[in-house]
Here is the input.
Amino acid sequence: MNLIIAKIMRMGEALCFLGDVIKVILRGRVRLGETLKQVYEQGFQSVIIIALTSAASGIVLALQGYVMMVRFGAKEYMAQLVALSLVRELSPVFTALIFSGKAGARIAAELGTMNVNDQMLATRTLGVDPIEFLVVPRILACFLVLPILTIISEIVGIAGGYLVGIFEAGIPGTFYIHQTFKAIQFVDFFSGFAKVFFFSVFVGWICCYQGFFTKGGSLGVGKFTTRAVAYSYIVVIISNTILTKLILTFWE
Here is the structure.
């Protein structure tokens, strides 16, 4: 019973934390310099790992699709399979998960270290709101960076499928590109891209919250960072299921 009450209190605390962040943003107290710094640290430094993962995903998806479709004499539809799979589901979800493990862990560890070293207390002593100075730039950076990384993931993944299509399946390059653009409709792009904004808020919120309330010294930093990444993974996967159902229900 006490465990349930504690969980409910933490959820309330997390919601109040998010409310404080939203109030700071709505009041226009956004530090542009810090936000741009976080955009660079979270976004630019995550491009390589996301590009490599996306290329590998596109190549594997194309190889598996080619093997399967050759059995039915339909290898010409490999471009549609790769493009729709990446745009609608794989790129948004994979990018959010990788971003959680890369940038999200960094956010939680940075804020957690600052908290256990009393640096947040020092900012309050100097009259600076730590939510305004430390949290808001990180959450806004997540909101700006993740959609861009998702687009990069989709392009790189489709390029990986393209290479398999022309070199392994023997599909003409112009035909593959034409089939790719023909397959992707606005609803396909929207159904995947819209979810990314929710993922970005969830990841930024969870990781900032866990880091902001870290306790227990250096061991606590590791514990709360691991918890932030794990919770981010769970929320991304569950919210993806719910959002996919809602989008398909009301859009198509």
The mean pLDDT is 87. Residues 78-116 form the longest helix (39 residues). The chain has nine helices and no strands.
